[in-house]
Design brief:
The chain is mainly beta and 386 residues long. It has a single domain (19-385), classed as Porin, CATH 2.40.160. It is built from three helices and 19 strands. The protein has helices spanning 19-25, 28-46, 197-200, and strands at residues 51-68, 73-79, 86-94, 100-108, 133-142, 146-154, 184-186, 192-196, 208-215, 222-230, 240-252, 255-266, 270-281, 286-295, 301-311, 319-329, 337-349, 354-366, 375-385. A 16-stranded antiparallel barrel has the order 1-3-4-5-6-9-10-11-12-13-14-15-16-17-18-19. Strands 7-8 form a two-stranded antiparallel ribbon. The two termini are 19 Å apart.
Length: 386
């Protein structure tokens, strides 16, 4: 799928976790499982490696954002947190009988991003923090038994709310808070309401954490994924995270279909469900994506719908157009209603591995303690992949 499952906002000023705490997290069943999987990898390697591949990749993705909160506005250049600037390294060894052993490192570059920008603080700065680390994992996969992943990386529910064939995810998708998440809603007098876009617009998608993850082989297009882990990059979070997801991917004659549903539990007091489904009519380029999610304890929920069209209308590459709508209840508090409309266009420039994009989004929040102004965000930018 043309899917971007990027949660890129970072936190500054945290201390590294205590080393003894990390050792504790690797004890017991998790450590035994890792030892067993490494031993299995060693046996497969002893039977003869076929090929070793090394890949370096990355992207730069900057946009010019114009944000109007109803009382003030500003225009600024920043990293686009829909898919932030990053680099990555993959080292993969093909083992006997189709087995593979992969090491994967990926990190954001550390540019200040759109999700953290405010009207008062939106300078483009470069400061790498450990929360920029996206992947630092070892993956051992087999054709018959699936794949086992250990380290920092995607939990089982990462991406379950973001299935999308539109080709416009770089400018808008179901995680609609990534464009301007820290912008606060203001009342008619200009006072802050205490609620920002992050609080009022969430899709309950999974995250990346230090975890042990298992992916089953696909059977008739269905695959099961489970993971268990903890947060090691942010200070003060001692919860255990458990995730379960079912995935479906299938080509059906003129259509491509992709679906996801997942359940995530954080500690003993928070759980959520999220799902998404996407269709693409391959000959016409028409596509549809829908997502929904619910926070179990509070009942906060949302629904998201996106319609798109992508075709090659010029020699540069494929052009993608889409529009979407988001409706949420109780996300910013009991009785609140969150509504957003967006439109986006992405033009691929194949020769230079670049996407040129433009988008507009309107955020509305009703039913809060005080009436607040709408927030409007427009962006133009480019993503270059290397």
């Amino acid at each position: 799928m043309q899917q971007t499952t990027d949660h890129n906002a970072t936190a500054a000023g945290h201390q590294y976790p205590n080393k003894s705490k990390i050792r504790l997290r690797l004890s017991g069943v998790g450590a035994a499982t890792v030892v067993a999987f490494l031993a299995t990898a060693g046996l497969a390697r002893a039977d003869g490696a076929k090929q070793t591949a090394f890949k370096f990749y990355g992207q730069l993705n900057f946009g010019i954002f114009h944000v109007d909160d109803g009382q003030d506005y500003d225009t600024y250049l920043t990293d686009n947190d829909n898919s932030n600037s990053r680099i990555g390294i993959i080292h993969q060894t093909e083992l006997a009988n189709g087995h593979r052993l992969k090491f994967h490192f990926e990190s954001g570059l550390g540019f200040s991003g759109s999700a953290a920008a405010t009207l008062d603080d939106n300078d483009l700065n470069l400061k790498w923090r450990r929360t920029e680390l996206r992947k630092l994992e070892v993956v051992y996969s087999t054709p018959a038994y699936g794949a086992l992943s250990f380290g920092q990386g995607s939990t089982a529910t990462d991406g379950v709310a973001e299935t999308d064939f539109s080709g416009t995810s770089v400018v808008h998708y179901s995680s609609i808070n990534a464009l301007a998440g820290t912008i606060e809603f203001r009342d008619a007098g200009g006072a802050g309401s205490g609620s920002n876009i992050n609080a009022a617009f969430r899709n309950f998608d999974g995250a990346r954490r230090f975890r042990l993850r298992y992916d089953s082989p696909a059977v008739s297009g269905f695959a099961l994924t489970v993971s268990a882990g903890q947060e090691v990059l942010r200070h003060g979070d001692d919860r255990d995270y458990y995730d379960l997801a079912l995935r479906f991917d299938r080509d059906l004659d003129q259509f491509k279909v992709s679906g996801r549903i997942g359940y995530a539990r954080a500690g003993s007091d928070r759980s959520s469900v999220a799902s998404s489904i996407a269709f693409l009519h391959t000959s016409s380029g028409l596509n549809l994506a829908a997502a929904t999610g619910r926070q179990q304890e509070t009942g906060a929920n949302y629904a998201y719908l996106k319609l798109g069209l992508k075709r090659r209308w010029n020699d540069l590459g494929e052009t993608a157009l889409s529009l979407d709508v988001f409706e949420g209840d109780d996300l910013a508090g009991i009785g609140s209603q969150s509504t957003s409309y967006g439109i986006g266009i992405v033009q691929k420039w194949d020769r230079y591995n670049t996407e040129l994009y433009a988008g507009y989004r309107r955020y509305e929040l009703k039913g809060a303690a005080v009436a607040v102004e709408d927030i409007n965000v427009a962006v133009i930018g480019a993503r270059w992949k290397f």
